[in-house]
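Module 6 notes. Inverse folding takes a fixed backbone as the condition and produces residue identities as the prediction. Think of it as a translation problem where the source language is geometry and the target language is the twenty amino acids. Below is one complete input and output pair. Work through it position by position during the lab.
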């Protein structure tokens, strides 16, 4: 299967393990259709004994530096999927 121009590219993955849980953070880059720039997005997934949950925020920023800063902050603070939007709302 061949990827198209606008398919997301994984830029970074971080994994955190807490007692009974595993968190996975992924930073994506997607080529914008109407310009030469990129949009950056993140997903946060948690897996544990009660199942799994994933949250995503698309087009979080157009700046790679800002995307990397936010991605590291989310992973460093072990933000969970249920808190992702609230945390981003507070820091943006």
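Target side of the pair, the amino acids:
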């Amino acid at each position: 299967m061949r990827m198209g121009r606008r398919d997301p590219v994984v830029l970074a993955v971080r994994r955190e393990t807490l007692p009974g849980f595993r968190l996975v953070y992924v930073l994506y880059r997607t080529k914008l259709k109407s310009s030469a720039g990129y949009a950056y997005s993140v997903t946060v997934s948690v897996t544990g004994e009660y199942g799994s949950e994933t949250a995503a925020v698309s087009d979080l920023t157009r700046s790679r530096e800002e995307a990397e800063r936010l991605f590291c902050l989310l992973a460093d603070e072990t933000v969970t999927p249920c808190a992702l939007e609230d945390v981003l709302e507070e820091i943006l």
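Reference fact for the lab report: The mean pLDDT is 92.
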